[in-house]
Amino acid sequence: MRVRNTMLMAVCLLLLATSSALAAAAQTVAATPPMGWNSWNFFAGKVTDKDIRDTADLLVSTGMRDAGYVYVNIDDTWEGERDASGRIQSNSKFPDMKALADYVHSKGLKLGIYSSPGAKTCARFEASLGHEEQDAQTYADWGIDYLKYDLCSYRTVMQQQAPDDPAAQNKLMRQAYEKMHQAIVKTRRPMVYSLCQYGWDSVWEWGPSVGANLWRTTGDISANFDRMSLIGRSQAGLAKFAAPGHWNDPDMLEVGNGKLTHDENLTHMTLWAMLAAPLIAGNNLTQMTPEIGAILMNKEAIAIDQDALGRQGDRLYAEGPVEIWLKPLKDGRKAMAIFNFGESTAEMRGIGLHLKEAGFSGQVSANDVWAAKDLGRIGDDSKFTIPRHGVVLLVLTK
Ligand code: GAL
Question: For the CA atoms of 93, 67, 309, 238, what is the dihedral angle to 10 degrees?
Fold first, then answer.
C-alpha cells in the first residue's frame, strides 16, 4: 500500500512539474522579439520543402542561427486538402511536414507555419475556420513552434455576420484570434503566436489580450526604400505597446531583397533594431552576399533589437529629412540612430544630437555601430555626414 501511495505521489509530482514547465515555456516564448526567417518576401507562392531545408542548412552554415535567427517560417501556400476526418494535409510541395519539422529541429532550429481564421488563406488555400482546435493539434503533432495567423478571408465572415458594424466586426475578429490562442494553449506545445491583420483597429491595444506574441502593425512591406521607410517611420508612438512577450511587428525584413542599396539595407536593419521589431529575414539565403550577411548578423545591431529591457525605441527629433530615434537599453545605455530619409547627403548643419532630451547631462561616450568605431567622448554639437537614405547608429554611455 505504502509503495503504491509513494508511486502515485511521484507520478503526481512529475505531472505537476511537467505542466508548470510547459506553462513557463509558454510564457517565455518571445521574451525578446522573435528572430528567424520567413518564406514569403522572396519565395512567395513558390516555396517548397527543399527551399525550407536549404534555408535551414544555410541558417546554420552562414552563422545566422548562432546570431539568433532560429525560426524557419513557412508562409502561405503549404496547405493541401482536409482528409475525411477534417485533418489538414500539406500539399505536394511539402510531402511530409513531420519529417520536415524533424529535419529543421535536428539543425537546432524551430519551424513556423501559417494559416488564417477564415475559410481560405490570402493565397486562397485551405484555412482554419471551424477547424481551429484540430489544426492547432495537427501543428503540435508535426512539431510546429510558431504560427502566423493572417486575417484574409475572415473579413468576409465579419462583413456577413455584422454588416456595416465596425464594433461588432472588431469583436468577431478578436474572438477569432482568441479562439486559435486557446486552441494552441490546449495542445500544451509552446508556439509563438503571430497576428497578421495589418494593424487594424489599433491591434497593439488588444493584441496581448488575445494571446499574441507579436502583431503586424501595417500592410505588407515590399523591397523598396519608400515602402520600407514609410512603414518604419509610421511606428512612431507605438513604443508603449511593446514589452517582453508581445511586440509590434512592422513586417518581415527585406534586407537583401529587391534593389535596396547598401545604405538602404543599413537603414532598414537599424530601424527594425531600434523598433525592437521581430527580425524575420526574408531573403534568399542561397544567394546571400557577404555584405548582406554582415548587415543581418551585425552583433551590436542585433543586441540593440534583442536588449533585455525590451523597450521599443521612438522618434526623438525630426528636422526635414533628418530624424533622430532613441532606444533605451538595459544598464542605462541608449541607442541613437540618426537617419537621413532625404535624397541627398545630410551634413547636420544646425542640427544637434539632442543629448539632453535623450536623457544625458553632458558629453557621452559613443560607439558607432556600422563603422565599428569607438568615437570617444562626443557632445551635442558633434556632426555626422549621413548619405542619402543612410543612417548613423550610435550606442551612447554616460
Ligand atoms: C498577406 C500577409 C503577407 C503574406 C501573404 C500570404 O496578407 O500580409 O505577409 O503572409 O498574405 O498570402
Answer: -40
Cell of 341: 530619409
**What's CA 228's distance to the chain center, in Å?**
15
Task: Give the list of residues 6+ apart from residue 341 with CB closer than 8 angstroms, or none.
Answer: 229, 233, 321, 322, 323, 389
20-25-26-27 Cα dihedral, nearest 10 degrees? 90
130-189: pLDDT as tens digits:
999 999 999 999 999 999 999 999 999 999 999 999 999 999 999 999 999 999 999 999
**Atom 9 of ligand 1, residue of closest alpha carbon:** 220
Residue 219: how many CB atoms within 10 A of its CB?
12
Residue 189 has a pLDDT of 98
**Which residues are CB-contacts of 63 (< 8 A; sequence separation ≥ 6)?**
293, 297
The C-alpha atoms of residue 336 and residue 327 are separated, in whole angstroms, by 7
AA identity, residue 388: R
Which phi and psi (to 5°) does residue 180 adopt?
-70, -35
Residue 318, CA distances (Å) to 45, 219, 329, 364 in order: 39, 24, 21, 21
Residue 365 identity (one-letter amino acid)? S
Cell 539565403, located at residue = 285
Cα–Cα nearest to 144, from 98, 88, 195, 207: 98
The amino acid at 140: A
Task: Give the single-character DSSP code of 257.
Answer: S
* Distance between Cα 218 and ligand 1 center (Å): 11
Q: Tell me which DSSP letter residue 242 carries.
A: -
CB 72 within 8 A of CB 55: yes
- Centre of ligand 1 to C-alpha 177, Å, is 16
Pairing of strands 322-328, 334-340: antiparallel
Active-site residues, by number, are 150, 220
Nearest CA to ligand 1 atom 2: 220
Cell numbers for 335, please give them: 541607442
pLDDT in tens, 206-236: 999 999 999 999 999 999 999 999 999 999 9
Paired strand residues for 365: 377, 397
Q: How far apart are CA 59 and CA 106, in angstroms?
A: 13
Give the Cα separation of 279 and 69 in Å (integer).
8
